[in-house]
Amino acid sequence: MTAPSLPLLVEPRPLLSRGVVVVALLGALLLLLLLASLSYGQVLVPVAKVVDVLLGRAPDSPAARILLELRLPRVAAAILGGAGVATAGLLLQALFRNPLADGWSLGLTAGGQFGAALVVAGGGIAFASDEVAWLRVFGGLSLVAGAALGTIAVVIGMAAMARRVGGITLLVLGLMLGFLSQGLMSVVLHFTNQGRARIFASWNDATFAGVQRGDLVPFLLPVLSGLVLTVVLLKPLSALLLGEAYARSLGVDIVRLRRWALGAAILLVAPVTAFCGPLIFLGLIVPHLARGLRGTAQLTPLFPVVVLGGALVALAGDFVVHLPWEQHFLHLNAILAVIGAPVVILLLVFSRSMRLAS
Amino acid sequence: MSALVATELSIGYSGHRPLIEQVSLEAHPGEFICVLGRNGIGKSTLLRTLAGLHAPLAGEVRLGEQVVASMSPEQRAQQVAVVLTDRIPMPGLTARDVVELGRLPFTSWLGVLSTADHQMVEESLRVVQATALAARTVDDLSDGERQRVMIARALAQRPTMLLLDEITAFLDLPSRVAMMTLLRGLARSRGCLVILSTHDLELSLQLADRLWLLPGDGLLIDNVPEAIALDGHVSRAFDQQHVHFAMERGTFTLTPAEGPPVQVAGEQPARFWTAQALKRSGWTVDEASDRVSVVVDVGRDGDGYRWVTSNGEEHQTCRSLAELLSVLRRT
Fold first, then answer.
1. N or C terminus of chain A: which is more exposed, having fewer CB within 10 Å?
2. What are the backbone angles phi and psi of residue B219, rounded to the nearest 5°?
3. Which of B86, B78, B82, B94 is nearest to B154 (CA)?
4. Shortest CB distance from B76 goes to which of A251, A291, A354?
């Protein structure tokens, strides 16, 4: 063969690939939204002032207190929580080979909520007379631990169920677990201290505003380790897109992969559920939006888009909720449902893969 | 290149009778082997065992120097590629995505493809003539297109051994011929060992270098196709009440019912098809003229044919095969 006459096998790559453009665009949007979120609210803090505070040039000012005590933890929780839940969606969709899987639709969120509710209720009974000790129980690590235990229980159950029932049935089961957990939570709280139950009642909705500065460590560590673990799992999970048999033929240890991936999902979902409540639709739709933007279903190029996309959607929802409205009835989950439900409906009606899965 | 050697191999599922017992096999790079046998006889299990995806009950399979069962999954994936029958949904993946995933055993921990990897992907697509399909979603492809893409994926793995499990099952005849010719060509050009399990006995007889015939009872017959046919193994394995393997033609034919004898005269191919039509309608076509009461003579008539029947006394001319059949039915 004469090498020079051979046509170029691979088209020369454009200088800016689609991946770079999408990631840069999402990153820029996120940065803008971050500044806007810190700046806007009941009190307007000019962007210049925001930058000053962030750079430590304006300590002890009222603006610094608003930003560092209230807005920054909330915004950080939104970015990290959104990224975590969306990544869990990507992970679970690949693992369960189900386009509508995510932490919420598979019931992981419900399990986490119920676990956290038990911790609150148990703390309420154990420290019935000691308000301070009870509050300490309510915040932080014990809450995450409770949520994690609940999530683990559901994960084990759903993984076993996935072998017996079809994709759609599994999702219905997951949603039923959500109702069950809401019901059980009401029952449990009915028999515990009414006043404390009220703190918890807001849990039907999700909010990032409950996250305090001190919470960031128990919140941050598991989510970050979940993200790192996901990166390590991207290659074997990609092989799983071809189905178990092909994945095995490509050298993937399915049992080990499943164990680690479920572990990662728990790390990503449980702390977000513990601190922010049930985030609906987010983990489900962001991977699909990312596929549309990125033009591929391969996991490695999708991952950064999903992380940024998840953060962006969560932060945007949070931004809208916290705009200086006259009345405060706008809930985060309401916004997520308005965006998410139509996406799911479109998927159910038009996606060929979804029909094949059912 | 490394040969495949199976020594005293028994395969199956523990607690059940072995599907194949104590069989020794050898196969070489560049060979195209077809595995034949009735459903449930153990073709898939044999392929899965050779691929190292299923543990043998006894004996061992070696690929070159290494025992397949004790290779690490990663090592195995660099040598053995498989293509399966099942049509599993692969949501959102394009044909190119699927072929790219074939390079995973050779990539770093993050699975990012190098320029060389991309070239192999494009080349694999081209070899199976699937370049035009590359951007399409796999779930939207037809069965034949999809199998071509799955073969490209396996080729991207650069295997020393390529195992394909009944991949021609859902294809129409021309596609089956094309697919099997392609596989034989790949075995030759890549110097890789290609093993295909199939129900296509007639095509296998014409295209395979060797046949592995599973007649049941734990046996495996390994020989060149013609020898297997000549020894009567095909007949023993596949003949049924109404179908038999016609030794002189190498095809399966309906076992004819014993009907009234008829002789057919005339030129080919008209004589052949007239005889076929008569056999189908219950006549016994007989070459010897002394035993027959009816003779059909077919000849050219302008653009078409005409048939003259005679029973010794009367002659009758028919303008079509259908007419001939109805005339004969009345006699």
1. N
2. -95, 160
3. B82
4. A251
Say yes or no: B53 contacts chain A, CB-CB below 8 A.
Answer: yes
Contact call for residues B72 and B28 (beta carbons, < 8 A): no
Least confident of A23-27, A64-68, B211-215: A64-68
What six digits make up the tokens of A41? 């609210």
How far is A66 from A64, CA to CA, in rounded Å? Answer: 6
Confirm or reject contact between A55 and chain B (CB < 8 A): no
Q: What is the residue type of B314?
A: E
Q: What residue ranges do the domains of chain A occupy? A: 23-350
Lowest mean pLDDT among A95-104, A112-121, A227-236, B139-148: A112-121
Two structure tokens written together for B87: 């049509």
The answer to whether residue B21 scores a pLDDT higher than 80 is: yes
pLDDT at B65 > cutoff 80: yes
Q: How far is CA B197 from the centre of its chain?
A: 7
- Give chain A positions within 8 Å (CB) of B123: 9
B122-136 average pLDDT score: 93
Q: What percent of chain A has pLDDT over 90?
A: 47
Separation in Å, CA A37 to CA A29, A53, A76, B112, B118: 12, 14, 11, 36, 43
Contact criterion met (CB < 8 Å) for A245 and B140: no
Distance CA B266, CA B319 (A): 15
Sign of dihedral through CA atoms B155, B159, B162, B167?
A: negative
Q: CA of B122: which chain A residue's CA is closest? A: A9
Q: How many CB atoms within 10 Å of residue A146?
A: 26
Residues A3-48 pLDDT 10s = 444 444 455 556 578 889 999 999 999 999 999 999 988 888 888 8
Question: Which of B74, B91, B97 lies closest to A251 in CB terms?
Answer: B74
Torsion of CA B202, B204, B207, B212, to 10 degrees: -150
Q: What are phi and psi of B281, to 5 degrees?
A: -90, 15
- Contact list in B for residue A241 (CB cut-off 8 A) is 90-91, 93, 97, 101
CATH class given for the domain over A23-350: mainly alpha
Minimal-distance CA residue of chain A relative to B136: A296
Tell me the three state secondary structure of residue B94: strand
DSSP B238-285: H--SSEEEETTTTEEEEPPP---EEEEEE-TTHHHHHHHHHHHTT-EE
Who's near A226: CB < 8 A, 6+ residues apart?
A84, A87, A88, A264, A265, A266, A267, A268
Tell me the pLDDT of chain A averaged across its residues: 85
| Lowest-confidence pick of A200-209, A252-261, B134-143 | A200-209
**How far away is chain B from the Cα of A243, in angstroms, using its nearest Cα?**
7
B135–chain A Cβ distance below 8 A for any pair: no
Selecting from B73, B93, B123 the residue whose C-beta is nearest the C-beta of A251 gives B73
Q: DSSP strand E in A135-191: where?
A: none
| Nearest CB neighbour to B111, from listed A234, A249, A296 | A234
Residue B5: the pLDDT is: 94
Q: Where are the alpha helices (DSSP H) in chain B?
A: 43-50, 73-77, 95-101, 115-127, 143-156, 173-190, 201-207, 225-230, 233-238, 270-280, 321-330
